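Example S7 (structure tokens).
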């Protein structure tokens, strides 16, 4: 399969949405197949399952193949992205085997099979983005919000946040810092870049 899932900031993904083709919302195969976490079994997981946004080639295929999919507008997608991002989900661009953009996945740490395979089993199901998080030390008050929202365990809290750029996938969740203490910068290590 190779590396095909690319965590990205939602504003970047909105720009990737096709202008003149259909966009389809459908069921997340990962979340349904994995039955993500203990919370799910205890009835405490409130994560929705209709969180895959199929674009381009994926939209055409899934609209024909899956009856639960439905067409949605670009504005609906923007609203979904913003809402889910604010709830702590990260967004990923998914490429099919032939490298066509296929879907935009709305992922959580425990429900996304490529994320679990990468973080728990070191199987490289995800590709690091072209940016990573860095700390603006003078703005950090050590509140820990960035560590709490990081799905990739890239942030630890000492007196201030410490960010491990090698663990960071560049999804941008930590940019929710209320003090503006985190910024995304371009990756310079070429082996970590995807484009």
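Recovered sequence:
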């Amino acid at each position: 399969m190779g590396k095909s899932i690319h965590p990205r900031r939602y504003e970047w993904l909105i720009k990737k949405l096709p202008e003149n083709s259909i966009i389809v919302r459908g069921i997340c195969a990962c979340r349904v197949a994995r039955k993500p976490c203990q919370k799910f079994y205890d009835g405490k997981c409130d994560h929705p399952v209709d969180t895959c946004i199929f674009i381009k080639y994926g939209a055409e295929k899934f609209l024909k193949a899956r009856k639960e999919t439905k067409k949605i507008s670009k504005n609906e997608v923007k609203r979904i992205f913003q809402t889910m991002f604010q709830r702590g989900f990260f967004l990923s661009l998914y490429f099919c085997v032939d490298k066509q953009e296929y879907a935009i996945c709305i992922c959580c740490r425990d429900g996304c099979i490529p994320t679990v395979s990468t973080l728990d089993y070191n199987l490289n199901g995800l590709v690091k983005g072209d940016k990573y998080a860095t700390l603006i030390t003078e703005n950090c008050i050590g509140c820990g919000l960035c560590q709490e929202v990081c799905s990739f365990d890239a942030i630890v809290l000492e007196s201030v946040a410490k960010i491990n750029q090698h663990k960071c996938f560049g999804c941008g969740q930590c940019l929710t810092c209320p003090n503006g203490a985190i910024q995304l910068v371009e990756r310079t290590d070429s082996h970590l870049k995807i484009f």
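Notes on this example. The beta strands are 5-8, 23-26, 52-55, 70-72, 90-95, 101-107, 131-135, 155-157, 161-163, 182-186.
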